[in-house]
Protein backbone atom coordinates (compact mmCIF):
# COMPACT_ATOMS: atom_id res chain seq x y z
CA UNK A 1 0.00 0.00 0.00
CA UNK A 2 1.30 3.44 -0.88
CA UNK A 3 1.05 6.29 1.60
CA UNK A 4 -1.45 8.43 -0.42
CA UNK A 5 -3.90 5.49 -0.48
CA UNK A 6 -3.30 4.88 3.23
CA UNK A 7 -3.93 8.58 4.00
CA UNK A 8 -7.19 8.48 1.99
CA UNK A 9 -8.34 5.38 3.88
CA UNK A 10 -7.42 6.99 7.19
CA UNK A 11 -9.39 10.12 6.26
CA UNK A 12 -12.40 7.87 5.59
CA UNK A 13 -12.06 6.24 9.03
CA UNK A 14 -11.94 9.68 10.65
CA UNK A 15 -14.92 10.98 8.67
CA UNK A 16 -16.97 7.89 9.54
CA UNK A 17 -16.59 8.88 13.19
CA UNK A 18 -17.25 12.59 12.74
CA UNK A 19 -13.59 13.54 12.83
CA UNK A 20 -11.12 14.90 10.35
CA UNK A 21 -7.44 14.56 9.81
CA UNK A 22 -5.64 17.44 8.21
CA UNK A 23 -2.26 16.77 6.70
CA UNK A 24 0.05 19.68 6.12
CA UNK A 25 2.33 20.17 3.15
CA UNK A 26 5.11 17.74 2.37
CA UNK A 27 8.82 18.38 2.61
CA UNK A 28 10.87 19.19 -0.43
CA UNK A 29 13.31 17.05 -2.35
CA UNK A 30 16.31 18.97 -1.00
CA UNK A 31 15.40 18.11 2.61
CA UNK A 32 15.02 14.43 1.70
CA UNK A 33 18.33 14.45 -0.17
CA UNK A 34 20.05 16.02 2.84
CA UNK A 35 18.66 13.30 5.13
CA UNK A 36 19.88 10.61 2.74
CA UNK A 37 23.38 12.09 2.77
CA UNK A 38 23.34 12.18 6.58
CA UNK A 39 22.19 8.55 6.82
CA UNK A 40 24.50 7.42 4.04
CA UNK A 41 21.90 5.74 1.82
CA UNK A 42 18.62 6.37 0.05
CA UNK A 43 15.30 6.25 1.86
CA UNK A 44 12.74 3.63 0.83
CA UNK A 45 10.35 5.01 -1.77
CA UNK A 46 7.32 4.49 0.48
CA UNK A 47 8.71 6.60 3.31
CA UNK A 48 9.99 9.27 0.91
CA UNK A 49 6.51 9.44 -0.60
CA UNK A 50 4.99 9.81 2.87
CA UNK A 51 7.26 12.76 3.72
CA UNK A 52 6.67 14.33 0.31
CA UNK A 53 2.92 13.99 0.97
CA UNK A 54 3.03 15.52 4.45
CA UNK A 55 5.99 16.47 6.58
CA UNK A 56 4.69 14.98 9.81
CA UNK A 57 1.25 14.93 11.36
CA UNK A 58 1.59 17.35 14.25
CA UNK A 59 -0.79 16.16 16.95
CA UNK A 60 -2.76 13.87 14.63
CA UNK A 61 -2.23 10.13 15.03
CA UNK A 62 -1.33 8.49 11.74
CA UNK A 63 0.44 5.30 12.76
CA UNK A 64 0.70 2.65 15.45
CA UNK A 65 2.34 -0.72 15.81
CA UNK A 66 0.02 -3.24 14.09
CA UNK A 67 -1.81 -5.22 16.73
CA UNK A 68 -1.38 -2.49 19.36
CA UNK A 69 -3.73 0.39 20.02
CA UNK A 70 -1.25 3.12 20.93
CA UNK A 71 -1.53 5.79 18.24
CA UNK A 72 1.70 7.31 16.95
CA UNK A 73 2.34 10.72 15.46
CA UNK A 74 4.10 10.87 12.10
CA UNK A 75 7.35 12.70 12.75
CA UNK A 76 8.41 15.53 10.50
CA UNK A 77 11.68 14.83 8.73
CA UNK A 78 13.42 17.30 11.07
CA UNK A 79 11.93 15.56 14.16
CA UNK A 80 12.93 12.16 12.75
CA UNK A 81 16.52 13.33 12.37
CA UNK A 82 16.45 14.77 15.89
CA UNK A 83 15.09 11.48 17.32
CA UNK A 84 17.82 9.58 15.44
CA UNK A 85 20.48 11.88 16.92
CA UNK A 86 19.03 11.28 20.40
CA UNK A 87 19.24 7.52 19.96
CA UNK A 88 22.84 7.86 18.78
CA UNK A 89 23.81 10.02 21.80
CA UNK A 90 22.20 7.69 24.36
CA UNK A 91 23.34 4.35 22.88
CA UNK A 92 26.86 4.29 24.41
CA UNK A 93 25.48 4.57 27.94
CA UNK A 94 23.71 1.21 27.50
CA UNK A 95 26.73 -0.85 26.40
CA UNK A 96 27.04 -3.97 28.51
CA UNK A 97 23.62 -3.73 30.17
CA UNK A 98 21.28 -6.69 30.44
CA UNK A 99 18.78 -4.97 28.15
CA UNK A 100 21.45 -4.48 25.53
CA UNK A 101 22.27 -8.21 25.64
CA UNK A 102 18.63 -9.40 25.52
CA UNK A 103 17.71 -11.74 22.66
CA UNK A 104 16.45 -9.94 19.57
CA UNK A 105 14.83 -10.93 16.30
CA UNK A 106 17.64 -12.14 14.04
CA UNK A 107 16.56 -9.69 11.30
CA UNK A 108 17.70 -6.76 13.46
CA UNK A 109 21.32 -5.95 14.20
CA UNK A 110 22.40 -5.86 17.82
CA UNK A 111 23.02 -2.71 19.80
CA UNK A 112 21.03 0.32 20.84
CA UNK A 113 21.66 2.28 17.69
CA UNK A 114 22.63 1.66 14.08
CA UNK A 115 23.40 4.47 11.65
CA UNK A 116 20.74 3.06 9.33
CA UNK A 117 17.89 3.38 11.84
CA UNK A 118 15.62 6.33 11.14
CA UNK A 119 12.57 6.99 13.35
CA UNK A 120 9.47 8.08 11.45
CA UNK A 121 6.70 7.79 14.05
CA UNK A 122 6.48 8.01 17.79
CA UNK A 123 4.36 8.22 20.88
CA UNK A 124 5.04 10.23 23.99
CA UNK A 125 8.17 12.01 22.84
CA UNK A 126 10.30 8.91 22.35
CA UNK A 127 9.34 5.97 24.59
CA UNK A 128 7.79 4.33 21.52
CA UNK A 129 9.40 4.81 18.12
CA UNK A 130 8.72 3.21 14.75
CA UNK A 131 11.83 3.18 12.59
CA UNK A 132 12.92 2.29 9.08
CA UNK A 133 15.89 -0.05 9.25
CA UNK A 134 18.36 0.68 6.47
CA UNK A 135 21.11 -1.43 8.02
CA UNK A 136 19.51 -4.78 8.94
CA UNK A 137 21.30 -7.97 9.83
CA UNK A 138 22.05 -10.53 7.11
CA UNK A 139 18.67 -12.16 7.85
CA UNK A 140 16.82 -8.84 7.59
CA UNK A 141 15.68 -6.69 4.72
CA UNK A 142 16.70 -3.12 3.93
CA UNK A 143 13.66 -0.94 4.55
CA UNK A 144 12.07 -3.19 7.16
CA UNK A 145 10.08 -1.47 9.91
CA UNK A 146 11.25 -1.95 13.49
CA UNK A 147 10.01 -0.58 16.79
CA UNK A 148 11.81 0.71 19.86
CA UNK A 149 9.80 0.39 23.07
CA UNK A 150 11.07 1.82 26.34
CA UNK A 151 10.66 0.08 29.70
CA UNK A 152 11.63 -2.58 29.22
CA UNK A 153 13.76 -1.43 26.32
CA UNK A 154 13.23 -3.66 23.31
CA UNK A 155 13.67 -3.38 19.58
CA UNK A 156 11.25 -5.55 17.61
CA UNK A 157 10.62 -6.38 13.98
CA UNK A 158 7.27 -4.95 12.82
CA UNK A 159 7.07 -5.43 9.04
CA UNK A 160 9.26 -6.42 6.11
CA UNK A 161 8.68 -3.09 4.36
CA UNK A 162 6.83 0.20 4.72
CA UNK A 163 3.96 -0.80 2.37
CA UNK A 164 3.36 -3.99 4.37
CA UNK A 165 3.40 -1.93 7.57
CA UNK A 166 0.72 0.39 6.17
CA UNK A 167 -1.52 -2.51 5.09
CA UNK A 168 -1.26 -4.23 8.49
CA UNK A 169 -1.80 -0.96 10.27
CA UNK A 170 -4.92 -0.09 8.31
CA UNK A 171 -6.35 -3.55 9.05
CA UNK A 172 -5.74 -3.00 12.79
CA UNK A 173 -7.32 0.47 12.67
CA UNK A 174 -10.36 -0.78 10.77
CA UNK A 175 -10.90 -3.51 13.41
CA UNK A 176 -11.06 -0.98 16.24
CA UNK A 177 -11.22 2.59 14.92
CA UNK A 178 -12.55 3.96 18.22
CA UNK A 179 -9.40 2.91 20.06
CA UNK A 180 -7.15 4.38 17.37
CA UNK A 181 -9.13 7.62 17.37
CA UNK A 182 -9.14 7.56 21.18
CA UNK A 183 -12.92 7.69 21.37
CA UNK A 184 -13.66 6.37 24.85
What does this structure look like?
The chain has helices at residues 3-16, 29-39, 45-53, 77-90, 98-101, 162-175, 177-180; strands at residues 61-63, 72-74, 117-123, 128-133, 144-149, 154-159. α1 (3-16) runs parallel beside α6. The longest helix has 14 residues, at 3-16. The chain has a 6-stranded antiparallel β-sheet with strand order 1-2-3-4-5-6. The chain is an alpha+beta fold and 184 residues long.
Please give the alpha-carbon distance between the first and last residues.
Answer: 29 Å
pLDDT < 50 runs, ≥5 residues: none
For CATH, the homologous superfamily is named as: SMI1/KNR4-like
Overall radius of gyration: 16 Å
Strand arrangement, largest sheet? 1-2-3-4-5-6
Q: Into which percentage range does the β-strand content fall?
A: 15-25%
Shape: globular
How many strand elements?
6
Biggest sheet statistics:
6 strands, antiparallel
- Reading off the top of the CATH hierarchy, the class is best stated as Alpha Beta
Total DSSP helices: 7
Label this structure with key terms:
single chain, 184 residues, alpha+beta, SMI1/KNR4-like, 6-stranded antiparallel β-sheet, globular
What's the structural blueprint in terms of helices and strands?
Blueprint (H helix, E strand, L loop, with lengths): L2 H14 L12 H11 L5 H9 L7 E3 L8 E3 L2 H14 L7 H4 L15 E7 L4 E6 L10 E6 L4 E6 L2 H14 L1 H4 L4
Antiparallel strand pairs: 1-2, 2-3, 3-4, 4-5, 5-6
